[in-house]
Amino acid sequence: MTRHFLRDDDLSQAEQSAILDLAEQMKADRWGSKPLAGPQSVAVIFDKSSTRTRVSFHVGISDLGGSPLIISTANSQLGGKETPSDTARVLERMVSAIVWRTYGQAGLEEMAANTSVPVVNALSDDFHPCQLLADLLTIREHRGTLAGQTVAFIGDGASNMAQSYLLAGATAGMHVRVAAPAEFSPAAEVVADGERRAAETGGSVLVVTDPVAAVAGADVVVTDTWVSMGKEDEKQARLDTFNGYRVDDALMAHAADDAVFMHCLPADRGYEVTAEVIDGPRSIIWDEAENRLHAQKALLAWLLAANATTANATTANATTANASTATTATATTATATA
């Protein structure tokens, strides 16, 4: 079965760690691995505007020896006339992987169900798993380990970033706290999935409304924009609702003395975070942004290798089965002849 990366818990703890290990190796030797040599092409599809995702995937695919095929749904049949499943069936005959930055998670799931090449969620309304791989890589670089670290996400708990932190952080064995207004809590099913994964890894998940309670003693403090793409018409109402959830020096003072600050960017300075924090000595956002490149390269290489292993095993099993059938048939013919 083809391995895809549609949400953070598509990976086990061991698989997540293996990809982060590979990312560290690729960061240390940026052009040392060429699994896409040929060059093989990777389709990178955008429904939404992008800076970090577009640049990191384009550069990363090139670093891996491949050719990035950048597609805008506004200028393709996927933008209206063609279903994700039909597009997937066409693309799998020409590319080695499909990366899609989109809105609904259902479209990604439909595409993945109808193709033999790996599909990667480069962002959806529900999850942002590639960003979380970069965030985990950055935390590991600065904190040494992931398991046992406490991370506090402050702001929109229903956002793709908050929900991905619940799943990816729990997978890594972290203690994930989300502080959000009650009406912007994470989806109950995502919290439940995070709790199940945390029970396996020794981590934990907690959803509260008090940002101070979430940040108290935390090793990592994270926030994201209060007004995500597609929510612009809700801006004033959201600003009013999230009043009190801004990450500033006063809130950071409740975190551990050596706590770090993270933001996936772009940031609305003065809204979800103050300039003093985002530009301050605790901020590691630029390392976080760079690590999109290394984490995504490692993810693509890992998926290609995992699917090649599965394909080889399937072929080997089929060969063994055919040989067994042939042997049985020969024996039966010999018995009948005798």
TrEMBL record:
One of its GO terms (molecular function) is ornithine carbamoyltransferase activity. It is an enzyme of class 2 (transferase). Gene3D superfamilies: Aspartate/ornithine carbamoyltransferase. The keyword Nucleotide-binding does not apply. Pfam families: OTCace (PF00185), OTCace_N (PF02729). Its EC number is 2.1.3.3. It is found in: Cytoplasm. It catalyses: carbamoyl phosphate + L-ornithine = L-citrulline + phosphate + H(+). HAMAP family: OTCase. PANTHER family: ORNITHINE CARBAMOYLTRANSFERASE, MITOCHONDRIAL, ORNITHINE TRANSCARBAMYLASE, MITOCHONDRIAL. This is Ornithine carbamoyltransferase. The gene is argF.
